[in-house]
Amino acid sequence: MRRIAILGGGVGGTMVANRLARELREEIARSEVEVVLVGEEANHTYQPGFLYIAFNQAPLERFVRPQASLLVSGVRFLNVRAKKIDTASNSLQFENGDSLTYDFLVIATGSHPSMDTVTGLKEGAHSFYTAEQSIALRNALASMESGRIVIGVDVPHKCPVAVLEFTLMLDEYLRKRGKREQFEIIYTYPIGRLHSLVPVANWVEPEFERRGIQSEFFFNVDNVDPDKKIIESLEGSSYSYDLLVMVPAHRGAKVIMDSGIGDESGFVPTDRYSLRMKGSDNVFVIGDATDLPISKAGSTAHYEADTIVANLVDELHGLPADHQYDGKVYCFIEGGLDKATYIAFSYTEPPKPTAPSELLHWFKLMYNEIYWLSVRGLL
Ligand SMILES: Cc1cc2nc3c(=O)[nH]c(=O)nc-3n(C[C@H](O)[C@H](O)[C@H](O)COP(=O)(O)OP(=O)(O)OC[C@H]3O[C@@H](n4cnc5c(N)ncnc54)[C@H](O)[C@@H]3O)c2cc1C
Questions:
Q1: Which of 34, 39, 67, 262 has CA 20 to 30 A from 284's CA?
Q2: What pLDDT, in 10s, does the model give residues 193-218?
Q3: Tell me: the pLDDT tens digits for 306-340?
Q4: Are residues 13 and 72 both part of a single domain?
Q5: Are the beta carbons of 233 and 246 closer than 8 angstroms?
Q6: Is residue 346 part of a domain?
Q7: Are residues 233 and 275 in the same domain?
């Protein structure tokens, strides 16, 4: 019996496990292959939902399902946290003392926002990158009548367009409450434009102008004074704020750090085409866990899953496993509360955002529901 272990039950891990179980159902039925998903969470959370929670458009429960309910038959689910990945002995060690050997491993441990990378951030800033943060932000926003809202960004972080979506949605949220005139919105960004992707920066610039959203470039957050409510940049400028909303720098999972297989931020060195971990041919890496210079996004994991599943199936069938990921990413971008656009790009094709429309906004809302089919491997 050959075992494929998948570590991490988020977007990438769940999709790979379900698709493998379908593709290999005959081998699984004959007990020749086992597909094991190792996940520390009993529940699966759809993270793009956090944006809607922050603006009180939906409750958290809408975006959470039991992990076991999302798995097709043929996937064995171990609800446990891994404490070490040992690529020399092809094994995972768990916090409960158990271990699991594998023939192939897929690392799908994601990334998480770290509020510890900047002094004062934890005490002084809100965010919308976890369920708890988005609920706290929703409550803070709902209780504000006026003031200055400063938005700060640190890198790397997942879903690079989410901060633009947040800013545009914030503008409309305040307008819908009849309070926009009482608020200043200041968007800061670490480089010399509004977004790292040039076409996206060009697309959003007139949107910001039209809505009176102020911006400051080359603002790399250095520290936050939570008592005085001041944020300072490495470049020497500073803002006082009534509400600070920060997209903090992200880090890879602790298990990657603790296993000594990641870079200094905890991301796994990965071949950009084969998606194999560099130096370990029987280990694949998917989604946010890679060190690839592409958007950390659910759609990235979705397209990467195609490559990894095809390669694993070929490996098990003794065929050349030569499928390659082309860097494809597809993201809807909310352009306010009732319009959206989208971008699609790859290693070779730049994104070309179009004018936001209500139809695309409805597509995005529809995808938020279709996601539950997609993660089951049905789309
Ligand atoms: C506000 C917000 C908006 C977003 N909007 C979009 C969007 O519009 N479109 C888009 O494509 N993406 C979006 N994303 C990004 C998307 O959610 C992530 O990029 C995606 O979830 C990454 O998938 P993943 O499988 O790599 O990691 P995750 O989905 O984060 O899953 C990682 C899993 O690994 C588990 N894990 C980690 N360590 C261990 C361990 N030691 N043992 C066991 N389990 C472990 C974690 O518990 C987690 O379940 C958004 C994210 C946020 C926060």
A1: 67
A2: 999 999 999 999 999 999 999 999 99
A3: 999 999 999 999 999 999 999 999 999 999 899 99
A4: yes
A5: no
A6: no
A7: no
